[in-house]
Each structure stands twice: as C-alpha cells, then as structure tokens.
Specification:
two-stranded antiparallel ribbon, eight-stranded parallel sheet, alpha/beta
Length: 368
C-alpha cells in the first residue's frame, strides 16, 4: 500500500537497497559485540548508525536505510535473533570450504526483533525510510537440509510456513514504527533466472545444488510474500538480486523467467539489477506487470570502478522508454555489503550514491 509520503516521492526517486559498507571501526565494533556490555555496544553503534544516515542524506537520497550496520549479515541476523539455527552444514562456495547455518531446532516467536532498530532510523531522519527483511523462500532454500533439520521441521514446507508466520508478524510490527517502506529480500527467486543452474545444476555454491521447479516453487515463494504484505499499511518492495559475495554474483541471467510470475504479487515495487554484467536487460521491463513500480539498479556495487553519470543515465533513460517515469525509482543493483565484511569502502559507496542522485536530477529535467 503506497502511503501519503511515498506517493509524494518524485519520478526517479533514489533509494538504497539496504546495506552500506562498514568502515573498519564498525567491523571492529561488531566483532566485539559479545565481549561488550549491551548498553556500551548500543551507545557506540547508535553513533555509527547516525553517521550512516547522514551519509545517505548528504549523498542526496530520497529514501534511506540504517545501512544495516547492526546486522552481521542481512539474512543471518534474523536467524541469530529468532534462534533454532546452528552453523554446522559443510559446503563449498567459490572454492572455499565453509560451514553454513541451518535450522536444527524450533524458532521462537514473541517480541519483535528489529523494531528498536527501525524506530531509531525513523527518529533520526526526516526523509522516507526503508527497512528490509529476508523472504521465507530465501531462508528456507538455504537453511533447511534433511540431514540436519528434519527433527525440527519435517519438510522445508513446514519450515517455510513457520518462517512466513514469524516474518509477517515482524513486518507488521515494523510498519507501526513509522517506516515508510518494507522491503522483502529474495535473491532466491532470481535463481530461476539462471538457466544453467536450473537446467543443469551447475554452480559454484553447493547450497544451490538441488532440483529447481519454477512452476511449483516460485508460486509458493510469492504466496508467502503475499501473506506478509497483505496487511501492511506501508509500501512494500520486493528485491530480486543475483547475490553479492566478495564482488561476485552467485547466479546470472535476465529477469524474463520471473517477471510474469509477479502479476499476482501483492507488492508495490520490484527492485532489480541492470548495471552489472549478466543481470537484467532493460527490455525485461516489457514484462513488468502493470500494477508494479520498478527500482532500476543502475549502480554497479560489485565492480570497484565508479561508473560515469552518463553511463548510469543511459540505463535509466532506456528503462523510461518502456515504463512510465512515474513508475521508476533508481537504486544500486544490490546492497553494498550484505555481510559486514564485504570489501567495498564507504567512500566508494558515497561517491556512487552521490552520482545516483545527480542522475535522478538529470532525468527529472529530461522527462518532466
């Protein structure tokens, strides 16, 4: 549901996806969070988050987040707070042997997890605000495994059902804080865009090796999103990226396989990637359902190179020949640092976001 504040946003309004790179100071603070008193940690982190907010304001953004600096990881922070998960499943990712978190026990409901974080954001800016939550499908695909999880949840569907219940309650609580936009992050839907992954199972990430069935799995994913969005009195975005890890994508492919499936999605906008190679193609927007706005990713967050303003403008202007400018927002392809240790620098992010704002100004003049 678009609100009075989000309805007042101009064409080509600018937004972040969520996360900003953490300066070394913030990463060190997160590393010490279990060895500090809660009051001391929160006092220092509050100051850091205010800096993240001011950085976005100074870059000229219309919609801002808290940088997700209170989160170790955009997805795993939810699992840490909800309980029932352990980092015990071995897997290989881009040639590295790691252990991923999987569900091993019942998650707990009850008190909202991120409400205080969202209230802090709202209280420290006069601009439109956004808060992001991971989707049930994303979590279920990555975190349920029959070797570790079946005692807690007999099937992935049981797990996803409970996730949907918990995330819907969390989203409703967040909507009461004054946040203007709730974004549901679901890069797992974008897995269906990777024809090599879904047809041959070829991937550098062991966690993605499974049977993929877009006709069965995608409708279930969208149904869970609809349950979350159904009662929300704020604008709802869906973010479908190709994932970011050490400046690399997990999957490739344009959005043509999934955009038609969003016809029944009870959301207001879908945020997509167009700047990085192997992601969206502008002509994908011909398949954008009529009831949806689009967040066009025109800033490459993976490459260290900073695109020119002209280069960014060309991508967005091409989109405006297909979709009415009133339906277009501008954003980076993805969050700059979904994990707190991701490599982009805060200075790189500021320069890229500042250029994003300049592109928006140009396009408003051009398409007024």
């Amino acid at each position: 549901m678009r609100t009075d504040r989000t309805k007042a946003l101009p064409p080509f309004f600018t937004q972040v996806i969520g996360s900003l790179p953490r300066p070394t100071l913030v990463r060190a603070l997160v590393d010490r969070r279990t060895s500090m008193s809660g009051d001391e940690y929160n006092r220092v982190m509050d100051d850091m988050v205010i800096f993240a907010i001011r950085l976005q304001e100074q870059a000229g953004l219309d919609v801002i987040s808290d940088g997700e600096w209170r989160r170790v990881h955009y997805l795993d922070e939810f699992l840490h707070r909800v309980g029932g998960h352990q980092p015990i499943r071995p897997f290989e990712h881009q040639g590295e042997l790691k252990y991923t978190t999987v569900v091993t026990g019942q998650m707990r409901g009850g008190d909202p997890l991120f409400v205080d974080d969202a209230k802090f954001l709202v209280d420290h800016t006069d601009r439109c605000t956004k808060y992001a939550l991971p989707s049930p499908f994303l979590i279920a695909i990555r975190k349920w495994h029959e070797d570790f999880s079946s005692d807690a949840y007999p099937t992935m569907e049981h797990y996803m059902e409970h996730l949907t219940e918990l995330i819907a309650a969390e989203a409703l609580a967040l909507a009461q804080t004054g946040v203007d936009i709730i974004q549901i992050d679901d890069p797992a839907l974008t897995y269906f865009c990777d024809r090599q992954l879904t047809s041959e199972g070829q991937t550098h990430d062991d966690r993605l090796k499974r049977h993929w069935d877009i006709e069965r799995q995608a409708p279930a994913a969208i149904a869970s999103i609809n349950r979350i969005a159904a009662e929300l009195p704020v604008e709802v975005h869906l973010h479908c990226c190709h994932s970011v890890y050490k400046r690399q994508s997990d999957v490739t492919g344009d959005y043509k396989p999934i955009l038609p499936l969003l016809k029944g999605a009870r959301i207001d906008r879908v945020n997509l990637e167009f700047a990085y190679q192997g992601t969206g193609e502008v002509d994908d927007l011909e398949l954008l359902p009529e009831h949806l706005g689009v967040g066009m990713g025109i800033v490459d967050v993976r490459g260290e190179r900073i695109q020119s303003i002209d280069e960014m403008e060309r991508i967005a202007a091409a989109g405006a020949t297909i979709v009415d400018p009133s339906r277009i927002a501008l954003n980076p392809d993805c969050g700059f640092a979904p994990d707190y240790g991701e490599p982009p620098s805060i200075d790189e992010a500021f320069e890229k976001l500042s250029r994003l704002s300049e592109v928006a100004s140009r396009l408003r003049a051009r398409f007024s």
